[in-house]
Design goal:
By secondary structure, the chain is mainly beta. Helices cover 10% and strands 37% of the residues. It folds into six domains: 173 residues, Collagenase (Catalytic Domain) (3-Layer(aba) Sandwich); 56 residues, no CATH class; 92 residues, Immunoglobulin-like; 67 residues, no CATH class; 73 residues, Immunoglobulins (Immunoglobulin-like), CATH 2.60.40; 75 residues, Purple acid phosphatase-like, N-terminal (Immunoglobulin-like), CATH 2.60.40.380. The longest helix has 16 residues. The two termini are 66 Å apart.
Length: 603
C-alpha cells in the first residue's frame, strides 16, 4: 500500500487536510521508506492529556512485535512510527447489545478521533467507524504506510483485523495485536470457527483435504501439523486448518504454527528487497583489466539466511557471499556476470519460493580475454520428468540448436540420456558445433501396498519399496518416514488413500498410493454361541451376556459406523442396560486370547 512519499519531518508534519499539526514519533527507522515495511501506529480514545500514555503503549507494542517470531528475525526490515491523534473523549463506544457483552463495561457513545466501537453482535469485535478520517490522515501525513495498527484506549478485551489492525489495551493486548496483524498483514484466517461467513481460502484455511494437494503439504511431517476439520457439522466440516489448538490464530497462549509463520515470512520477503545497493551499478558494462571487485549491500536477517550465487555465462563460481573479485582471465569479453540473491530461511517450504523471491543482478564484462563459444547446462544430470536449460555463450554470429531451434537458450525435458548440440555460424569462419550430454536417471520403482481390508480395531500395515527414503501422508494427518508402518486400533477415519514419496540413491523421487479399506461391520463367526450367548435378539431395554469361559470377559457394542457405544467387563454373566437408538449393532466378545463377534438388533 505504499504511496508516493512526501517529505517527512522527524518530529511532526503539517496535516493540510485537517488544518492541524499532529506529532509523528519515529519509534524505529532501519532504512528507506521505499524498501521497508512501514508500520504506523495510531491511537483512538486518548485525550490530549493521555497522549503520553498512547506514546508509551505504541512503543511497548512495537517492542513486543519486533521480539515475536518470525518478526524477530527480520526486525531490521521494519520501520515503526506513531501519530498522536487526540480524541475529545477518553475511551471507546460500547453499544452493549451483543450477547457476549461484558457485564461490567459501561455502555455509551464516546466522541473519539476514529470512532472506535465494540461490536453490536460480536462484542469483542472492536472496529473503527471513521475510516474516511483515518485514510485522510494517512494520505496527508504518511502516505507510504504498509501496515496500520490502531490502539483503542480501553482495558476490555477486543480487536479486529482487515485492511487495518485494531486492538485494545487489555492485559493480552500485545498478543491480540499480533493475532490481528496475522489477518491484516499475512492474510491469515482464524483457526477457530467464527461462523459460516468466515470460511474462505487462505494460507491456513482450505476446503482441500488431500494430503497430496493441500496447501501446507510440505509441512505434514512437522509435529502438530495436519489436516484438521473446523468442525464436524455444517459449513465448519467443509473447511480445514493446519493446526488444532496449537496456533496463535486459534488461541492467544500459542505461537504461530509453522504454516502461519511461512505465510508471514513469504509476505514479508516479497515486499522487501534484500539487495540495498551494489557496485558497480547493475546493468552496466564493466571493464575488467587486472582485478575487479563486485559488491552487494545486503539487508540481512538475524541469523543471516541469505544465499548469493555468482555465475559467469551461466557457470556457477565457487565464490559465495556478497563480494566477488574477478581477474581478467575469469572475465571473457562480452560475458555476463550474474548474482542471484535468495533467502533460504527454514521458515518457508513454499515450492515456488526460489522462483518468486530470487533477486538477480547482472553486469556485462569487457576485457581482452576472448569469449569462447561454449554451452552451459543448468543441470548435467536430472531425473525423468525434470527440465534442463541449455544456454550458449560467446557466439558472435548465428546460433542454432539441435533441430534448427534458434535463440540463446534451449529448454529440454529428455526422457533418457540425450546429447544436444549448438552451432555458431560466423561469416568467413568455419561453423563451430558443440555437443553437451544431459544424463537422465530413471525414477525409482516405487510401490505401496497394505494388507487390508481391515476390521475396526485391527492393525493396518503399510509397506513401501523402491527407495532409500520414504515420506508417507494419509488420513487423520498421518505422516511417517518408515518403509513399513503399523497403525494399531484402526477406526473408520483411518480408511482412505495413503501416499508415499519414494526417493532413491540418485535423489530421484516417485509417489505411490495404496487404498486402505476398513469394514464398519465386524466379521461374524458361524457359531459364536459355542462359548457366548447374547440374548434376547432382537433386544429392547436390556442385553444378557453369558459365557462358559472362566475368568474376566469383556463385551463391546459398535454401531454400523464402527463407533463404540458401550463396553462392559464381567465374569460368567452380565445384564446390560441399553441406552442406544434402534438399529443393527455388532458386538465383540473377548476372554483372554479368545475373541468372537456377532450381530444384535435393538428395537
Amino acid at each position: 500500500m505504499k504511496r508516493i512519499f512526501a517529505t517527512l519531518c522527524a518530529i511532526c508534519i503539517a496535516a493540510a487536510g485537517f488544518g492541524q499539526v499532529y506529532q509523528v514519533d519515529t519509534l524505529y527507522k532501519t532504512g528507506p521508506l521505499d524498501n521497508r515495511i512501514n508500520v504506523v501506529i495510531l491511537g483512538d480514545g486518548f485525550t490530549q492529556q493521555e497522549l503520553p500514555k498512547f506514546a508509551t503503549e505504541a512503543k511497548n507494542f512495537a517492542d513486543f512485535f519486533l521480539g515475536y517470531d518470525p518478526y524477530l528475525h527480520y526486525r531490521n526490515y521494519f520501520n515503526f512510527f506513531a501519530i498522536r491523534t487526540p480524541s475529545v473523549e477518553s475511551g471507546v463506544t460500547n453499544p452493549g447489545t451483543a450477547p457476549d457483552a461484558y457485564k461490567d463495561q459501561p455502555v455509551g457513545v464516546k466522541n473519539t478521533f476514529f470512532g472506535s466501537t465494540f461490536g453490536s453482535s460480536i462484542h469483542r469485535l472492536v472496529t473503527i467507524s471513521k475510516y474516511e478520517v483515518l485514510y485522510a490522515l494517512l494520505a496527508n501525513q504518511f502516505p507510504m504506510y504498509d501496515l496500520v495498527v490502531v490502539l483503542v484506549n480501553t482495558p476490555f478485551y477486543g480487536g479486529s483485523g482487515g485492511s487495518i489492525s485494531v486492538h485494545t489495551l487489555h492485559t493480552q493486548a500485545n498478543t491480540i495485536g499480533v493475532h490481528e496483524i496475522g489477518h491484516t498483514f499475512s492474510h491469515l484466517n482464524d483457526e477457530y470457527w467464527a461462523g459460516p461467513g468466515y470460511g474462505w481460502e487462505a494460507a491456513n484455511m482450505t476446503k482441500e483435504s488431500s494430503p497430496a494437494l493441500v496447501k501446507w503439504k510440505n509441512w505434514l511431517n512437522q509435529p502438530g501439523i495436519g489436516i484438521y476439520k473446523h468442525g464436524e457439522t455444517g459449513d465448519a466440516a467443509l473447511w480445514h486448518k493446519p493446526a488444532n489448538g496449537t496456533c496463535l490464530m486459534e488461541y492467544l497462549n500459542q505461537e504461530f504454527c509453522a504454516v502461519c509463520r511461512e505465510a508471514t515470512v513469504e509476505t514479508l520477503l516479497k515486499q522487501v528487497n534484500p539487495v540495498e545497493n551494489a557496485e558497480p551499478v547493475p546493468g552496466s558494462i564493466v571493464t575488467v583489466k587486472d582485478l575487479q571487485t563486485f559488491k552487494i549491500g545486503l539487508l540481512t536477517p538475524g541469523p543471516n539466511t541469505i544465499q548469493v550465487r555468482w555465475t559467469v555465462n551461466g557457470e556457477l563460481l565457487s565464490a559465495t557471499g556478497p563480494h566477488l573479485t574477478l581477474t581478467s582471465e575469469q572475465a571473457p569479453d562480452g560475458a555476463v556476470l550474474a548474482a542471484s540473491v535468495f533467502d533460504t530461511t527454514a521458515a518457508s517450504r513454499y515450492d515456488g519460493a526460489r522462483a518468486d523471491r530470487t533477486r538477480k543482478l547482472e553486469w556485462t564484462l569487457k576485457s581482452n580475454t576472448p569469449n569462447v563459444f561454449r554451452i552451459a547446462a543448468s543441470k548435467d544430470t536430472i531425473c525423468v520428468g525434470e527440465e534442463v536449460t541449455l544456454t550458449a555463450y560467446g557466439c558472435r554470429g548465428t546460433l542454432s540448436w539441435t533441430g534448427g531451434v534458434a535463440g540463446a537458450s534451449l529448454k529440454v525435458k529428455p526422457e533418457r540420456t540425450t546429447t544436444y548440440s549448438a552451432s555458431c555460424k560466423v561469416e568467413g569462419v568455419p561453423t563451430q558445433t558443440i555437443e553437451v550430454p544431459v544424463h537422465v536417471m530413471p525414477l525409482p520403482n516405487a510401490t505401496a501396498v497394505n494388507g487390508g481390508p481391515y476390521l475396526v480395531g485391527g492393525t493396518i500395515e503399510l509397506t513401501a519399496t523402491g527407495g532409500v527414503t520414504y515420506l508417507w501422508s494419509g488420513p487423520r494427518s498421518f505422516a511417517s518416514t518408515l518403509p513399513n508402518v503399523f497403525l494399531h486400533d484402526a477406526v473408520l477415519d483411518n480408511a482412505g488413500t495413503y501416499e508415499v514419496t519414494v526417493t532413491d540413491v540418485n535423489g530421484c523421487s516417485k509417489t505411490a498410493q495404496t487404498e486402505v479399506k476398513i469394514d464398519p461391520i465386524l466379521s461374524v463367526p458361524t457359531v459364536p454361541e459355542v462359548v457366548v450367548n447374547v440374548s434376547p435378539n432382537p433386544a429392547r431395554d436390556f442385553l444378557s451376556v453369558e459365557t462358559r469361559l472362566a475368568g474376566k470377559s469383556n463385551i463391546k457394542l459398535y454401531d454400523q459406523a464402527g463407533r463404540e457405544v458401550l463396553t462392559k467387563s464381567f465374569e460368567r454373566k452380565a445384564d446390560i442396560k441399553l441406552n442406544v437408538v434402534t438399529g443393527i449393532y455388532v458386538y465383540r466378545f473377548t476372554n483372554g486370547g479368545r475373541e468372537l463377534s456377532g450381530k444384535v438388533a435393538v428395537q
